[in-house]
Structures are given as C-alpha cells and as structure tokens.
Design a protein that fits this description.
Number of domains: 2
Order of helices and strands: EHEEHEHEHEHEHEEE
Shape: globular
Distance between the termini: 42 Å
Radius of gyration: 17 Å
Number of strands: 10
Number of helices: 6
CATH architecture of the largest domain: 3-Layer(aba) Sandwich
Largest sheet: 6 strands, mixed
Structural class: alpha/beta
CATH superfamily of the largest domain: HUPs
Helix content: 25-40%
C-alpha cells in the first residue's frame, strides 16, 4: 500500500473515473476528488454536469468531493488563484500529490507540472501514454459507463451529444476523432464502472447549444431504482438554438 495521500483532479468524466480505478489498483489512497465548479450555474466547468449529479457521483465512488468555485466567465488569473488556494489547503491536510487523467497532451501536462512546482505536491499521470483506442476498449470491457455531455460540433456531429460511451460509439466516431476525446472533441459523465460502489441513477434531459458547444443535460433519477438499467438516451430532445443550460 502506497503511503501517498492523493487528490484526484475530477472532471466527472470517464477518464477521471478510470484513473480512480487505476490508482486504487496500485494501492494509492485517494483522499479527495478535486473539481472546479461554475458558481453562476452550479455545474462542473466545461462538462456542464449539475452539481447534484457530481455530489451523487462522489458518494457512489466513496471519495470526498473537494469543490473549487470559479466565476463565469473565468479569467485565467481567477482560475489560477482558486486552484492555488485549493493546493495550499490540500498540502495542509497532508496531501502529497495530485493525480490527473491526462493521456497525451504535452502542453497540458507541462502546465499542470509548472503550477504544482513549489507547492510540495507531486503531479501523477496514471494513464499517460496509453494508446487511446486500447484504453477506451479496456474501459468499456471493464464496465465503465458514461454518456457524452458535451460535444464540439466542429469535430463531431451534434447527434453524438447524449450518446453512451460504448463500442457502438467507438465504431461510429470519425477517424480524426480521438477515441477518448482527448483533443476536446467530447466530454462525458461517468455513472458506473469499476471505481463505483453503486451506479448513479441519471435521466437524460434536453440537448442545447451554447457558446459553440452542444450539451446533453442530465438530471438525477429519484424514482428509487437501486440499480438502474442503462438510460434511454434516445429520448433526448433535438438541439435547439444557443441558450443557457442552467
């Protein structure tokens, strides 16, 4: 068992969830999930997942959530100030490292390492360098369940918003799209998988277009089902003109 106490940068997506699984398999103690929250709309930054779903997700994986509020819009200096405060607080709690689910973007890794330099915290990249097609297939084979909550229509047709992350999705992705969406082609919400103690019951909502991205909204299913079947994403509404999704 590792003597490290690690925070995991948690976007609510499949890569974060699978990183948690990998860290646990390595014997690493994950002490918290670090997530930036859009304070204006109470949603996960970029993924646009509702805060209620994020909190249910943290409970389902059994790790405390560390919420870092950021304004909207968020200048880079405001983001860095919020993260610096979060890192200082983590260090005071005995955290020794921060893990990220990044796969191959060198500039992103360099930025994270530079921001942690001098904080006393190490940067960990458990999935780094894995061939993304093989990684995506492994996730699916091990039961990772996720839905695409955000799609960049410049890379993917709008109809991909709200689709399940599964073998059919991998088959249908255009050849120039990374199977894990590492270039920002899509973002996801993980609702079950090897890191979960129980699934997060979710319902599909509207699909909306805002600020150049297409978002598939999700809500918490409070019908009482303890082990819901895969959501019926076919009920999602068609994209509408740009509007807020709060």
């Amino acid at each position: 068992m590792s003597d490290q106490r690690v925070l995991l940068a948690w976007s609510s997506g499949k890569d974060s969830a699978f990183t948690l699984h990998v860290l646990r398999a390595q014997g690493v103690a994950v002490a918290g999930l670090l997530t930036t929250i859009n304070e204006a709309f109470e949603r996960v930054a970029m993924h646009a997942v509702r805060l209620s779903l994020l909190r249910a997700q943290a409970e389902a994986v059994g790790v405390p959530l560390v919420e870092v509020g950021i304004p909207s819009p968020c200048p880079n200096e405001a983001y860095e100030a919020a993260m610096s405060a979060a890192m200082a607080a983590a260090r005071e709690r005995g955290i020794t490292a921060v893990a990220f689910g990044d796969l191959f973007l060198e500039d992103v890794r360099r930025y994270r390492e530079e921001r942690l330099a001098g904080t006393g915290l190490r940067a960990l990249f458990p999935l780094w360098g894995r061939p993304t097609r093989e990684l995506a297939e492994e996730m699916i084979a091990l039961g990772q369940k996720a839905v695409l909550t955000c799609v960049d229509p410049r890379a993917l047709p709008r109809a991909f918003a709200g689709r399940a992350f599964d073998t059919a999705l991998l088959r249908d992705l255009p050849a120039n799209v990374d199977p894990c969406g590492e270039n920002g082609e899509f973002h996801s919400f993980a609702w079950d998988g090897p890191a979960f103690q129980r699934p997060v019951p979710v319902r599909p909502g509207e699909v909306v277009e805002r600020e150049g991205f297409v978002f598939a909204d999700l809500t918490l299913d409070q019908s009482g089902a303890s082990a819901p079947a895969a959501p019926d994403w076919s009920t999602l509404a068609a994209p509408r003109p740009a509007q807020d999704v709060s």
